[in-house]
Amino acid sequence: MIDLHCHILPALDDGALDLADSVAMARQAEDDGIQIVCATPHIRSDHDVRPEELESRIQAVNQELERQDVDVLVAHGGEVADEALHEVADEKLRLVSLGATGVWLLIEPRPGPITGDLIDTVDRLADRSFRCVIAHPERHAGADFRERLEALVERGALIQVTAALIADGPASPVLIELAGHGLVHLLGSDSHSSHAGRPVKLSHGLARLAEVECVKPHLDWVVRDGPRAILAGEETSPPFLPC
Q1: Are the C-beta atoms of residues 141 and 174 closer than 8 Å to each other?
Q2: In the chain, what are the domain boundaries?
Q3: Where are the beta strands (DSSP E) in 79-130?
Q4: How crowded is residue 223: how many other Cβ atoms within 10 Å of its Cβ?
Q5: pTM for this structure?
Q6: What confidence score (pLDDT) does residue 143 get?
Q7: Where are the alpha helices (DSSP H) in 156-225?
Q8: Cα dihedral angle (192, 194, 196, 202), rounded to 10 degrees?
Q9: pLDDT digits over 84-115, tens only?
Q10: How far apart are CA 193 and CA 14, in angstroms?
């Protein structure tokens, strides 16, 4: 499996505290059957993340994982805040794209319900030759939540939900219903530390998605084939749309 959303890089944003924490997070991933974890530090004004430094930071973590015989690879990425996009040049966006291929961006919606601003962002990024994965939309539900997600998907965006929240919790019934309409495409752990909070784990969310008839035949796409294509910078679409 591939985790497209994880704050595994140490001492950078609000994620892993140190290298030991990063290794512990990778061990959680290994235990869950995750082979690749995409490092997605926050790209926004309240975190001093320098895209040009990410390659060396990722390499350092991968070297330590190899030294400790942890069979997990950390891949490039970033979680780009919608509200910060106007401040980030295309060159830097390519550095924080998923897989560092310059194609797919993990976009963090603005605080509050999803609005037309996010739809406009997807359109503008398409004009700049970027594709979008929308991160944890379950945090941004509003009265017209489903309609907003449908509009994003119509524009070619993919929807990534947090595995732990679709597995259990107040948002789970809503997310399962959305999955039944083909509006849940990818899972991410959105883990920030091994010490507290969500673990680096996808299997529990995948088990809930297996209850959705139109998604059940395509679980490999959700956690393997789709993410692999994204990290390779390839065009890809869910095989279960429309449901």
Answers
A1: yes
A2: 2-231
A3: 79-81, 104-108
A4: 24
A5: 0.95
A6: 83
A7: 163-167, 172-180, 203-209, 219-220
A8: 70
A9: 887 788 999 999 999 999 999 999 999 999 99
A10: 9
| Cα–Cα distance measured from residue 141 to residue 77, given in angstroms and rounded to the nearest whole number | 25
Q: How far is the C-alpha of 158 from the C-alpha of 231, rounded, in Å?
A: 13
Alpha helix stretches (DSSP H) within 114-186:
116-127, 145-154, 163-167, 172-180
Q: What is the rounded CA–CA span in Å between residue 182 and residue 159?
A: 10
Q: At 28, phi and psi to the nearest 5?
A: -60, -45
Residues 29-61: tens digit of each pLDDT: 999 999 999 999 999 888 888 999 999 999 999
The two most distant CA atoms of the chain are separated, in Å, by 50
Helix (H, G, I), strand (E, B) or coil at 187: strand
User: Please, are residues 4 and 96 in contact by the beta-carbon 8 Å criterion?
Assistant: no
The gap between the terminal CA atoms of the chain, to the nearest Å, is 24
Q: Report the amino acid identity of residue 81.
A: A
Please identify, in words, the CATH class of the domain defined by 2-231. alpha beta
